[in-house]
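[Automated response] Your request has been received and processed.

Submitted sequence:
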Amino acid sequence: MRLAVIGSGPGGYVAAIKAAQLGARVTVIEDDEVGGTCLNWGCIPTKTIIASCELLSKTKELDKFGLDLNGTVVPNLARIIERKNKVVGIQVKGIRALFKSWGIGLIEGRGVLTSPREVEVTLKDGGTERIDTERVILATGSRPAQIPSLPFDGRNVLSSSDMLGLSEIPKSLLVVGAGVIGSEFACIFRELGSDVTMVEMADRAVATEDLEISALLEKELKKKKIRLLAGVSVGKTEIREDGVHAFLSDGRELSAEKVLVAVGRAFNSDRLGLDTVGVTRGRRGEVLVNARMETNVPGVYAIGDLTGGMLLAHKASKEGIVAAKNIMGLAEEMAYDVVPSAIFTSPEIASVGLREQEAEAKGIPIRTGHFEFRALGKAHAIGEIAGFVKIIADEQTDRIRGAHVIGPHASDLIHEMAVAMRTGRTVREVAATIHAHPTLSEGIMEAAEALHGEAIHVPKR
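Generated structure:
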């Protein structure tokens, strides 16, 4: 089987490797750098910078841990970015080495479908090349979305990608959008010393999350002196000598040295030749697929951000595996009911399954269990007590329908709940599982116990 994969982000490169493992002859076409947005301008770069911010945050509390510091710790953004680039470079080399080990061809250029069985590549170094193939996987991802009132200029009005190239910490930063990306960058640059204001059209931060999660995050943002203006939008802007002036829908005027526009992502479905071969797209430009990751055109598959839904790297990787298996004759379908997500704010947020408001909207009778980190010895030992675990279960069957964590290492803790949901475990089974002490994972156990009123470390009411 000859397979062409257009795009080499976390969906495309994983699909390519899985198909090669199953015996396909794979060619990957990439017009920028392997690893895509996630590796080069998203997940890995931001988490590398966050690691520096977490260390910086700890240095401000050394006296609480009985440590004396002679002098001060000052963030050097240029060196932080230098380290970020080094980490990214190592990962890029790793993917290229994996391609080589599995015999995957890499063509650097922009690929366009001229038919369901042919891809024309405009090569980076000039010229064109035609790839004859039996199957195609489209994995071109997404890019930062723009709004008319705040077009990116790379100097004053920045995209999330632009933010990763700054060499100096802005004195003030206006973040338009308090979703995942906006909230993460707000926490990053506040820790580095910027005066941060966030503007959000929705009535709360991280509006896709459980209501209680948003409420606690907003409380923590306030403690960090990050200003959040919810329920308003940016009308027009003016760039002046003293920075960018933004005029809000409620009549207020804000000014900042830099503006980050983080209002979502736009799908990279243009200039792919989709209309030429008849691939159907949705209202927002996303490529429509079925559970096998097949488009309406036989032999053409699509995965990752390009297909809409949850724009998550790990979801794209799983979709790539599903597509590769179906291409190679192994029937498999994508299931989206147990896909964990993580937001690397301070504190971290992670979730899987239904939010409480979603369960209520669907008329599902539920019970919830809560447990706060401040009741855990390990949380006090590491000096991070803000947050809680929340479990949502079917009232009749006790099966877990959703779980939400805000607090230290939330992104790691959520996977116990994802496994429990995928394997159909009940809340009582989670509660009955012995958890090591002292660990943060005890919060999962106690939240499960709390759902049935049996938590040991919750006071009697």
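Summary generated for your ticket: Residues 77-101 form the longest helix (25 residues). The first strand starts at residue 2 and ends at 6.
If you did not submit this request, please reply to this message.
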